[in-house]
Hydrogen peroxide-inducible genes activator (Sphingomonas aliaeris), 298 residues
Amino acid sequence: MATYLPTLKQLQYLVALKDHGHFGRAAEACFVTQSTLSAGIRELETLIGVVLVERTRRVVRFTPLGERIADKARRVLREAEELGDLARAAGRPLSGDMRMSVIPTIAPFMLPRILPRLRTDYPDLKLFLREEPSGAACEGLHNGRTDCVLLALPYACGEISSALLFEDRLFVAGPEAELGSPPTIRAADIDETRLLLLEDGHCLKDHALAACNRPEMRAEATMMGTSLHTIVQMVDNGLGVTMLPEMALKAGILDHTGLTARPLEADAPSRQIALVWRRASPREKDFLLLADVLAEAR
């Protein structure tokens, strides 16, 4: 008896619909028409003999079995992609497509320095970049949406391999009149009611609070900024003080402001910048080479 197996294209359509929750957006992500994507999923349902998606005018709802099959399809697609990775790994280093997620407290400060060198030294590398918070970046790594993540540690990112690039010191930034004259700012001396931090979802907030080791600070600090540039503008308007990573200062984030910054004095006053990837990835040699380039370009 002949066995009919789902095609990778059908599985791709199913996963895209699961990710986007909308036929139109899923079709755009797959670069096909909505009717093509819908027909592909119906063919898949007919092939395996079960309904995977409940369709209404307003809602796309996966059945319980559809949820499980979509998760399995994601793993199958990732394994299929790694077949290509094996071939690329045997060829020239750092060549072909690579998808890298970068968290927002690294991307604007580090990427402008590293991208020109990568384009010059590795012209055959096509690097697709995605800026997203740590949680989404790690989720994307494990479901195969991205190949590696430029991340700040410590952060619970699941089963990964990693290469430490460098330590990124934390600084306290604010008006000079408020910071005073000491060469460093002790964590104990920070007024938690004046501290502005990034909103939940940004690991820099957790790194800053962990470095200070003051439980009351988590309750009192104002967590309202959507980006470090927004936080800096609020501090420059007299709303408080904040903590910034050294890479942001080197990139000139305080230029054209009236603010100054001094190193944080604490037991662990820095975060670790690292490149992480899925454990046992066939492109590990590429990631280690990329990590060397990133570390040199700091």
